[in-house]
Amino acid sequence: DTAVSQTPKYLVTQMGNDKSIKCEQNLGHDTMYWYKQDSKKFLKIMFSYNNKELIINETVPNRFSPKSPDKAHLNLHINSLELGDSAVYFCASSQRGGAYEQYFGPGTRLTVT
Amino acid sequence: AQTVTQSQPEMSVQEAETVTLSCTYDTSENNYYLFWYKQPPSRQMILVIRQEAYKQQNATENRFSVNFQKAAKSFSLKISDSQLGDTAMYFCAFISHGGSQGNLIFGKGTKLSVKP
User: Fold this and answer.
1) Does A33 touch chain B (CB under 8 A)?
2) Closest to A6 (Cα-Cα) out of A39, A33, A40, A30
3) In this structure, what DSSP letter does residue A71 have?
4) How are strands ordered across the β-sheet holding A73-78?
């Protein structure tokens, strides 16, 4: 069984479109995260949710909106996509927030044309 | 603010030999955790090893071990008996025990190539 899964794995879309990436974890973890990995492989946290409540919101444009229907799911919705949004987006989860190791999904490569 | 620095963008090693990847970090906190993650060409992020700052003993996981020097804020990863499957990007990461919940801070990575 896959611990942290993301769909889709690849997403190609045009500027201005709205798209969503879904994430699910079956580890029973309380906290989920979204990270962005840029073209230089640099990973940076975007959002964190603990029991369906947002606990981190780094300086991310408000075109990005995370939604957590329950503690096993954390989706990322992106409005009005821009070329600079092209990146790999990783979902992760941990037992709870703080210093617990995070388990990552396979990533979603988003390409905006 | 905490920072993580990996000074070696790329490294290579011959199969079966040993290689050490460097990582330094900056923090004013006393309680924190450090991790090494591996990202092979498949893109999957895989946890290699973790170290709690309060533990003096260096963590080991099979062929992977760390040299944790708390005073020097250094956390290097040693890979023994390198295998072709070790070819990957390696990321050093820091997380505070307190402070921002779950704010895992990554270095910029070291691309390791294992040559046959």
Assistant:
1) yes
2) A33
3) T
4) A4-7, A19-25, A73-78, A64-70
Q: Is the dihedral of CA B101, A85, B87, B18 positive or negative?
A: negative
Q: Can you read off the two tokens belonging to residue B17? A: 């030999």
Residue B16 pLDDT: 97
Number of H helices, E strands in chain B: 0, 12
Q: Are strands A87-94 and A31-37 parallel, antiparallel or unpaired?
A: antiparallel
CA distance A56 to B54: 26
Residues B40-77 have pLDDT tens digits of 998 999 999 999 998 889 999 999 999 999 999 999 99
pLDDT at B100: 52
Q: Which residues of chain A does B98 touch, with a Cβ-Cβ cutoff of 8 Å?
A: 98
Sign of CA dihedral B72, B26, A92, A56: positive
The tokens for B51 are 């170290």
Residues B104 and B12 sit within 8 Å (Cβ to Cβ) = no
Tell which A residues from 80 to 99 touch B, by Cβ distance under 8 Å.
88, 90, 92, 94, 97-99
- Tell me the C-alpha distance between A88 and B60, whole Å: 30
Q: What is the pLDDT of residue A99?
A: 64
